TrEMBL record:
Residues 156-251 form the Glycoside hydrolase family 2 immunoglobulin-like beta-sandwich domain. The keyword Hydrolase applies. This is Glycoside hydrolase family 2 TIM barrel-domain containing protein. Residues 420-443 are annotated as: Disordered. PANTHER family: BETA-GALACTOSIDASE, BETA-MANNOSIDASE. Coiled coil: none annotated. Residues 55-126 form the Beta-mannosidase-like galactose-binding domain. SUPFAM superfamilies: (Trans)glycosidases, beta-Galactosidase/glucuronidase domain, Galactose-binding domain-like. GO terms for molecular function: hydrolase activity. InterPro entries: Beta-gal/glucu_dom_sf, Beta-mannosidase-like_N2, DUF4982, Galactose-bd-like_sf, GH, GH2_Domain-Containing, Glyco_hydro2_dom5, Glyco_hydro_2. Residues 260-412 form the Glycoside hydrolase family 2 catalytic domain.
Amino acid sequence: MTVHGTQLLADDWTVRSLPRGNPVPVHLPHDAMISEPRTANAASGAHGAFFPGGRYEYSKRLTVPTDASRVSLLFEGVQGIATVSVDGTVAGSNASPYREFEVDISHLARPGAEHNIVVQVDNSMLPSARWYTGSGIYRPVWMRATGPARFEVDGIDLRVRLTEDGCELQFVTTVETTVASDSPVDLSVRLELSDEGHLIGYASGPPGSMSLRVANPTAWTDTNPHLYSLTVTVLADGQESERVEHKIGLRTVEVDPRRGLLINGHPTLLRGACIHHDNGILGAATFREAEYRRARILKEQGYNAIRSAHNPLSRAFLDACDELGLYVLDELTDVWFTPKTPYDSASQFEETWPKDLKSMVAKDRLRPSVIMYSIGNEISESATRAGVSTAQEISSSLRELDPSRPTTLATNFVLSMLAGSPDHAEDHSPDTSKPAGPTSTTVNALSNRIGRATRLVTRLPKADSVSRDAFATVDVAGYNYGWVRYRADARRYPDRVVLGSESFPGEIAEIWPLVEQFPNVIGDFAWTGWEYLGEVGLGTWTYGDDRYRQARAWPQIVGGGGAIDLLGNPSGLMLLARAVWRIDSTPGIAVRPVDHSGQRVNRMLWRGSDAVPSWAWLGCTGRRADVEVYSAADDVELIINGRSLGRRPAGPRHRHAAHFQLDYEPGELVAIARVRGVEIGRSALRSAGKATVHVVPEIEVFDSDKQDLMFVRIELADANGTVEMADDDTVEVTVSGGSLIALGSAAPATTESYTDATHRTYQGRALAVVRPDPKGPGVVVGVISKGHGGSSAHVPLRRAER
């Protein structure tokens, strides 16, 4: 979204820790938690990756435009209880960390004058969620300076109807004004729709409803994410008061139990990834380029859908989904009335959910990427009478706010069965100061303990009885880890549309054939597509008797179940999914860590496999290597240094995986996939020669008008670029022409900080994140190591033309 008269307030802020910290310059968005020292007894515990949290004060000198009639501050998100002041006078507050909020400062700000803006944030009561939250002003802040009339925040709604010969667009605009009723002003709204710079539609009239017709439209889909430019202007007495610019896509969405999910009338299956809101080593800060990078890599790996877990996505991530073509299931919350952690939002849910819901819908409703809303995740009270009533109330409100998108509720059957027992069957307890009864955390621990026996539990008749009433309140039944019910429920509930809202990534080979078989099942979302901070050890495999082997133990830092690691590298789980989805005809080769061969393994259900796509394991010659080759082909042949190890069956009947064991030896490992004896593809992995430091920027030129950060891969690799997995080293990074924002690896356990200039690699890799100086000559990133030499890379800057 771009607003005429709106200014991004990113620079010239300071932050200090309260009560006695010194002010430090910062650039927004900013995560104050990621730089704090972690300790084993930190308040957030295993939920928040052992970060402490705290209280903070942000401040900025702000000059108000001389021609502004109305001035407000728009916050996209603040983690913690936020209080906003202007020159010492409180102007507004907010306690919902994922809700956007606007603070009108017109009565305190004088046009042309400079004012002191202070935002105090209290995020000291932890844990406040089951994951890493971050702290502070972690999403962008804007100043809105307009004339006397302006749109409500996201006060433009759109309904699309595609026809055989065109497209009908119905707009509704909501305008507010400060002009007194005894001095009426003539208000009008102007709509302009453009396609690649050419005006193709125009309408004007009073605020409210107006329509446009587009001939021969290009419909928006995940494979063709075509965007139009929409400019909407409100005029007061003929003078422009505010102008808003959006990128919109023309598409429709329906769900039908016989035809499934229909995008523009065409059946579509969701190859989905659940993701948390953090950006890995950057913490919770939602930098535009970081959000875009994550969306781009997820798309490149084969996902076509994203489920936000468990809160509304940022504007920047949704921008990327609109542009790249990713369907979005935006989720409201992880808790209702029953707390899951001691200081989560359960105690204020009844008061805040209507505002949170309205904010999410207003942000999403012009976006083609958003195709569905989730009213909650693993809500234990949805198995009770009070919970079903709440589900009905939220769903009804959603349909009033936005009838064009279906709703869902992500339900964990095991949790619902525990919560639906006599001890937890009544209305929610008024005491929400601490978790009471079963929570998602306890059910996750139970699932890891009993393993695949969860399938038997999920099949029980009680799983149906405790979920059916809540499912009746939404358009799509969200099954968390409930795919074993697909076949029976298709017969039992022929009018129910089902979505695999959460599943173990290692079970995709069993799940996806059912998604393709049953029309009422519209897709599957893996937990998780991308690795995340917090909820530590949920999926991390550990080895031997090392001190990290216990689940949720210090100093683990990530969840451990990501198909893509914290830095953006695909694991064997990602290769498996690509084979199941038939994206690749070439087989995917992954190898279980040879440096841990022969050690006792502590397996976790959310990981599925610890295999990674590498044959570079220094010092492991002669140790047993377990190789997994993923393919939809009939069989796969594996060859090591020209010697065939034979052919093994693959494809759907063998869960798309062929398994081989051999003694590790350096050289080349080749896999050949065949269908009915005919080769359809081959792939290879190679061991590494002598490894040195490689510095690999992910872009060739930094565009200061479009980008805010630059990502630089640091690899211990040979002359051919093959990364060595078993020869890690400590690296130190220097930056000229910019500043180092973050440095880290994908290590599941570490005591290092992501904000230091030194860090140890993990499996041969680290990642540096740099903010270039937009006025500088370019950026030079230098890296030196203890045992692998040093290197550097230069990235020139392309400045915006003014």
